[in-house]
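User: Predict the complex with zinc ion.
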Amino acid sequence: MKRLLFLTIIVVFLVYLAPIGFHFYQNGHPAEQEIHTVQNVENPSDSQALDGQNANKTADDADAAQAADEKTAEKQAPDAAASEKDTSPALRVSVNGRVREMSLEEYVAGAVAAEMPASFPDEALKAQAVAARTYAVYKQSLGRDEKHPDAVVCDDYTHCAAFVDLKNDAEELWGNKAEAWTKKIRAAAEQTAGKIVTYHDAPIAAVFHAAAAKQTEAAVSVWGADVPYLESVSSAGDDACPEYDSEVTLRAEEFRQLLLKKYPDINLTGLPKTWFTEVQSSEAGGVTSCKVGGIAMKGTEVRELLQLNSTHFTISTTDSTITFRTQGYGHGVGMSQYGAKHMAEDGKTFTEILEHYYTGTKVSDLAA
Ligand SMILES: [Zn+2]
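Assistant: Here is the predicted structure with zinc ion placed in the model:
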């Protein structure tokens, strides 16, 4: 009888309790991933700063977060080069958390495919190709990355740049347009092969975003680091981005609870209209800092907390609600992808686009 009872307990444990344990374990994991995906990079000089949105939202959060899990990284056999003509150097890329070695040009094509709609004009795609190549070369020049020490770049768009494997995933991405779009994207990479953006002969942190709000943000306004080639410049055509105007409305109580989690001492009493003070804006119009319930916050922090599309926001309140209206999509620094599209449609070349968005730079050939 005792033995039967013992067996029953074992069976109950295996059938009911053990899976609950597993479930908790698995649940813990995605929560960490979410934190990773909303993380903002504070300084473009030690890691990229795409923190956000690009014109092509193909990278889903799960994939992006998975890329951070370097514990699962495995080395794979090097991929074949994109074409026989491709003699570009090898690059180690962390894709879905696995380190893969591929040619620089294969990486560039995959990054353009993931970062910009293939329907964009050729010169915009070429500008994107040069930006992606430049960023990889720039990252290589920095040496080991703490997040992915075995790879130069990863496919997490909040950290490096999104990436898709054009050889295997083009169909999934584009369906019956896969062949045409692959050809178009590869042409943008091939026609700019070996070209990068330089400032005083060094590769730049070629950061980009989906859409500015008529003017890009200077790096110093967003990340606090003054980068001479990431100044605020005019940007036309951003409003073609479908996410250009957006708004987030929260109930006052919801907002209070959200902020209290992070700042237990925050003073959110009285009417919501009294909660926001000392709002400071950049030359481009983005909120650089403000006080919320007496606590000083950066615009990037408010953006992150409330998952706003950009720091270019206004705040309006009623007695019971708070509304944030944003313009633009992404951090606003460097090249605007919709701005690049607009310039290309206006007859500008990829070189003109890049040299417009990255102040004082030029497009150069990568030293052999
Ligand atoms: Zn990365």
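The chain has two domains: 31-240+332-365, 245-327.
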